[in-house]
Amino acid sequence: MTTKLRVYTNEDDALLFWSIPEPITQCRGFAIERKLTHPNRRTTQTFLLNRTAFDSQPRPTVSDRGQSAISKPSTEWPFQRFSWTDHDADTGDTVSYRVIPVVRQTSDLSLLESHASPWSTPRTLGSPGHSRYRAFFNRGFIMSQFMARYLAERNLTLKQFKETISDQDDKSIRQFLAGGLRVALLAELEEARQSGGHIYAALFELSDDELIGSLCALRDRAHLVLANGSVEAAKGEPAPKARQRDENEAARTQLLAANVAVDKTQRFIAPGALGHNKFMIRTDAGGTPLTAWTGSTNWAPTGLCTQINNGLLINDSNVARVYLDQWEALRQAQNEFPKALVSANNKPKAIGTDAPGVLRSTVWFTRTQKGVDLDALREEVGKAREGILFLMFMPGLTGLFSTILTRSAETDLYVRGVVSTLPKGQADPSALEIGLIDGENHTPLHLDIVQPEGMKHPFANFAAEVTRSEFLGWQGVGHAIIHSKVLVIDPFSADPVVITGSHNFSITASQKNDENFIIVKGDPELAEAYAVNILGVYAHYRWRAFLSQTNKPLNWLKDNDQWQSKKLSTDRRELRFWGV
Fold this sequence. Notes:
The chain is of the alpha+beta class. It is built from 17 helices and 25 strands. Strand 18 and strand 19 form a beta hairpin.
């Protein structure tokens, strides 16, 4: 009886799922062995680390120093589960894994090689450069063990940390948190500079010094429609006066000094409505569109580093033309929503032949009339047959979230998602996890859909983390923990669907704002990349949601083989969805 293993990857992570046909006598969990070849061809072969010990062992404490004190190879502290995300692999690394049962037949643990999975097919993290759609992600997990220890070691408050993430002298933490998202965005700007091309961007927020510098380096070959941010009218202040305030004033001043083509007042449509786009087009020297960039990332240190965000690079001149035409329409509209703009937004922009399994896309812009954009989104959700995975910011109950919530009650549909702020909080009935059980208490928990939480109290070898209230507080990091707006439908079917952009899937996004989203169909690599990202975020916050709902610090590893039957039973639907 061998262990069955499936490995999925994107540009930054590898996601493993494995299963066994029946419980293994004396099995205490699984060890994960990894072969990793770096881009420089250096290969290492190691066992992944686990930071959860057996309940029969002395407990390490948070005061213990050194990696060996807080984690051990999975041959010693095995994984009592059937999935794991390997966050330690990086873009360009080639990885292969095998999963081996760990048994206790005497007083010692040993590997049951006869039941080990074969080595998985080597996978290189990152999509090929010729791919038409390439997804990029950051690592904005501020509520995490890594950040808890980082802040403690440097004695930084949240406010101090926020002030330093744009500091060019402190590149290590900035580059780590911003990940491949920052690298890809800067690469597009640099490609335009070196090739003599142009950049056209419609941006909601611009405050990151590095990105501003890259735009300034382009001088008059950078063209921006730069909104005035999320301006709200003060009490008693007339809306026209409030609209004149500019949250991007500092960046605009720098851009104008560098001769960047940015109007002094362009898309000043707040309060009540936002110029919320974050898209960019790169053209050649003659103005022919080459690539488009969209996604959820605001061009700010928080957008790059402290929120979960994504970016989508589109290597398709036809799609890039659609975005460039919209950029021009927004520039012509100045600070208004003329009828011609809204009428054009009501019509989807389709690229490619609409046939199952064929790579094609549809772009939507807002504001629209009568919610036609939301109707298109609801139609896609209604077609889901296998699963729906998503990340959302603040969708509200009346937008797309209500449609997903209704479908999540279907027992044959796999639904997993994280919402930065659930419409009714963590007690929202949307959290409907069939089979997730509170350890020995056998209490059903509601965790199909969760909102982010941090660990308030330190325990064992885990450090106290930034909590949700601290993150969102007046001296915290900001109002967005999850800022991605992404939806993946039936990722492993013959015709997977990926939807992303700036649109919050809400009524406000549909009826008031400048927004965009793209529906990409028939691209299995893109669907896999986003699915891996979503589940990594979901797994990170589901465990913290579990702790917050149960008020239990930790379920330690059980030093017996009884955990398998419960886990196989509760994870059956998940394992089936992920192909094991």
